[in-house]
Amino acid sequence: MALIISKVAPLLGEGGAPAAPRALASLDFGSLDRLRGHRLQPLIFREVARRGLEKELPPAVFAEIRKAYLLAFQKAAGQEAEIPPVLKALGRAGIEAIILKGADVRRRLYSDPAVRPMADLDLLIPRARLREAGEILVQMGYLPLPEPRPGFVERFENEITFRPMPGKCLRVDLHFGELRALGPVYRLPHSRLAAWAQTLDLAGLEAKVLAPEHVLIHLSLHTFQDFTIFGPFAIPLIDLSLALARLPVDWDFFLAESARFRCQGPVYLMLRALTSLPGVAVPAEVLDCLGQYRPSWPERLVLQRLAYLSIHLSVLYRHRRFSDWAFFFWSKLFPQQSYTREHCGSFKARLRTFLKKLSSLKFVSPGKEIGSS
Predict the structure, then answer these.
(1) Residue pair 162/171 in contact by the 8 Å Cβ criterion
(2) For residues 234 and 5, is the Cβ–Cβ distance under 8 A?
(3) What residues contact 320, with CB distance under 8 A and at least 6 apart?
(4) pLDDT tens, 132-182?
(5) 370, 273 in Cβ contact below 8 A?
(6) What domains can you pick out in the chain, each with its CATH number?
(7) The Cα angle at residue 131 between residues 126 and 132, in degrees rounded to 5
């Protein structure tokens, strides 16, 4: 990860960025393979072209990242055209959806949708409008992915994924009622987020997005979850770095909202780790304030050793009736066939995956992971 960041960070700096030519001079096909794995080639090309640094790259390397950008530009143009019809259809029914993650940050932070890859349109809606919103998407041609058992998602989760309609490429992820990280351990209620939501111009359409402070909290939680379960990825780190640099964050409000949502622990760990990256700065007083938070011992286990298990354990803690537990385990261990076909796994395969994740549980340090190669 350190190699990836060393190539990208100098290019994202403002001004002349004197370190950029040195970073590009060492960009060969070996490091290009790593950039490709993190889907960073279009971003590298855009910054190289913007700064007029084409001659700093070997011609073959420049030709490859240029080709990657052109393909990404074509794909992003198609994706951007798919977003307004979904928002308009929901809006006609009086459902005000808040745009999350990629569809938001690729405009507010990157200014060029082609350089910020995404595969899903993430939307946050009120829980009470979930079924109506789902029916609208189905009428448009989107199909919900199968659940382990009917009613499982509404009972235990907060997100339904819809497969894109024929000829389209974006899936739609409907988050309802709240945003979550590590299962329901950390929750950001829709009512609070909607009260502070802002308006973003989306090709002439007024769309709702999170307030800058809520964007920073959500990205921190989402990135922390990815680190603790899947490992480090470059794109979420760059999202967070750009959010810190380019969003007008009211730090007093940010600290108050972090405390309101009781998520100071993971937000602190993530932001502190980010300060090890070139050009990333978080006000010292903000880190000091977040660092004063003392998590309870169950949360300490979540933050250190039980990140994967916390998703399931916290769900069971919130649903403590025997009937809920029975339905939860029955759905997980013996899902309906449509769900099994979609996720390509037999009972033995799912059990092996679960046991493998259990055996790999370890202390997770975002700072250490970010600094590793």
Answers:
(1) yes
(2) yes
(3) none
(4) 999 999 999 999 999 888 888 888 888 999 999 888 889 999 999 999 988
(5) yes
(6) 2-302+363-371 (3.30.460.40)
(7) 85
